[in-house]
Each structure stands twice: as structure tokens, then as C-alpha cells.
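Please, structure for the following, as C-alpha cells.
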Amino acid sequence: MKDLTKGNEAKLIFFFALPMLIGNVFQQLYNTVDSIIVGNALGKRALAAVGASFPIIFLLVSLIIGITMGSTILIAQYYGAREMDKVKRTIDSVYIFLFFVSIATTLMGLAFSGTILRLLKVPPDVFPQARQYLNIIFAGIIVMFGFNSMSAILRGLGDSKTPLYFLIIATLANIVLDLVFILGFGLGVAGAAWATVIAQGIAFASSVYYLNRTHEIFKFKVNSMSFDRRIFGLSMKIGLPSGIQQMLVATGMMALSRIVNGFGTNAMAAYAAAGRVDAFAFMPAMNIAVAVSAFVGQNLGANKEERVKKGYTASLVISGIISVITTFIVIIFGNQLIWLFNKDPNVIKIGTRYLTIVGSFYIVFSTMLITNGVLRGAGDTLVPMFITALSLWLVRIPISALLSQRIGTDGIWWGTPIAWIMGLTLSFSYYLTGRWKQKVITRKVIDTG
């Protein structure tokens, strides 16, 4: 556990985010290895199938991450206020909730996977493999949800290092299983899906074992768990807007995928490959934003508002430098990066254009994300939700659809930076009002007992 209320703000945020960043690099590494092996060993249709499934998986995981954000913020604020009993009750409540949600998600996913893929206009030559991949992921969704919830809990306690170690083990296992299942046993895209599920299961089991052995007060014990409706209600009040926001982002990705899918297999494969590169490019800002939320939560919980502005400024400098470097890399080496996934010239051409257009605006994305991280850390998650809805559904999707009819796939890609600019403008304007400081939950809880 890490106390973020004392010490140099920039150093605390950077070293808190660093283990999460390294962990996410490994997490994305096995997703990327999936795509590289699938794209080269099985062809562009298989790569397109995996890519077609990704927005659906992202929708589910984003919802859970968004909802558990409420638990992370509550845990951070309670921990900052040293209210350990409430920390324990928050953890128990999120465990119980996610168990039932994961079961329901698996059942509904298996029942409607085909319908969802048809709604996304997945071409017939890609559909069977996409459905097979998606069904296996749905079958193992409980371990995916479980590990994400464990990571959220540990981050709220100030521990961002522990999940990293488990992810490294899981990543290595996933790479080995990919090679065995796809190249050895010839299981095709099903092998890639099973490798991902098993790897997530290893990470989840490891995190449960660690928590039970090292944190006596926060042990994972099924027979002693209790569901606190009041704390769960507070968690949902904070987390549900983030969950809805993440769902809006994910459904926006699905809407974009539907537009991309209309341009055929080459565009789908290029979008899948470029999306993997994007995932790496987004990670620094995403993890710094999570670190900022925990930092803001603890410091506001401890009534140290003066540290929040310093932390925000430091985060913008760190993420800005990283974003500029990342932009140069993806623009200069974009062709080679797409080539790693598939050698088809048409796929490479479309994917490279994506990276050139979207990659030029990474600094806008990082600034927007970190600003929203400050708001969420204070418990103000409703405003970021509305800003995301506006920038995505009133800007990104309509512009992408309109421009794609005029200039092809380039038009789809241009919708993304335009939406980021709108989102940043709205988020920063709200930050300047200072109203988000009034949303700190622990002060209200302390006042009401």
C-alpha cells in the first residue's frame, strides 16, 4: 500500500503509474502476439475476425473497469482517511457484485454473439471465425472481470506493483500457449482465444493468492464476505457514470467498426493492426490518468487540495513528453508496424494512413484523459460521462460516417482527433470552474457517520 499524500507529486505519480504501465505493456503484448501470430500464420481473414471481436470484448471490460473505478476511488479516499473497516466493506461488495455480473454476461454473450456480429456487418468470410473466437472469450469472462477487479482494488490501496508481476507470468504463458495451440495443435483463432482466457485465469488466481497471503485485513474469503448496500450505492454513484462512459466509448468503437467493416476485409485487418499499435500508444496516458485519480482521491480524502493542482501539472508534463515521442515513432515507422501483423500491401497502406492521422494528435488525447482523471479522483464522474457522450456520438461517429462517404477510410480516421479536441475543450473548461472539488465522497460519509 502506498501513501500518496506526502512527497514530491511528480515522482509519486510517475512511479505509481510506472508498474501499471509496464503491466499493461505486457497485457497488450500478449494481445499483440495473438494478432501477429494469427495475422501471419492464419491470414488476414483470421486477423479481421479477431479485430471484429475486439470492440465487443472492449465493451464488456470497459464497463467493468468503469464501474470498479467507483470502488477504486472510494478505497483510495477511505484509505487516505484511514477508515480501514470501510475499505474492507467496499472490497467485499465489489467482489460479490462482479461475480453475479460475470455469470450473467457469459450467458447473454453466448446466446447473442452471432446477432451482435451481424449487427456489426461482419462479412460472411470472416463471421464463423469471429463468432468462434468471441464465444470462447465469453466463456472465460469471469477470470477477466476478476483480475481487473483485483487490480482496481490494489490500485486504490496504493499498490500498483503487484499486478505487474502476475501479468508478466501470464504474458509469457500466453505467448507459449499461442504457439502451442495455433502452430502446434492447429486450433486456429480458437487457440488464440483459449490462450488469452488461460493467461487471464493465471493472473486472477495469482492475485487472489497474493492478497490472501499478504493482506490479512483484506483477505479473499467467500464465507466471511458481506455486502454493504450503502457503500455499494456510493460506489455505483461514482462508478456507474464512468461505466456508462466506458460503454459509450466501447459502443462508439462498435459503431466505428460497423463503418470500417463496410469497406471489406482489408480495411478490417488494417484497423485491427493499427488498433494494436494504438493500444500501446494510449497506455502511458491511460496509466498516468489512473495514477492521478488515486493521487487526487487520497489527497482530497486527506484534505490536501493544494497538492492536487501540482499533481495535475506534473502529470501533463510527463504525459506530454511521452505523447510527442510516441507520435514521431508511429508516423516514421507506421509502415513497418502494420507490416508486423500482415504483409498484404493494401492492409499496410490503410493501416499506415490510420497511424499518420490519429497518431498526430496523441498529445490531445493524453491531456484530455489526465484532466478527466483529476475529475474522477474527486468523485465527479458524471460530467466526464456527458463530455464523452457528446464528443463521441455528436462529433466522432457522425463525422467519421460523413467523411468516409467522401474520402474513404481516411474519413473514418479523421473523426477521432476531431472528437478528442472537442472532449479536451469541454473537460478543461469544467476543470477551471473548480466545481469538481465539491464531489469528495469521504467528507460526506464522515459527516453522516
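The longest helix spans residues 44-80. Residues 9-443 form one domain.
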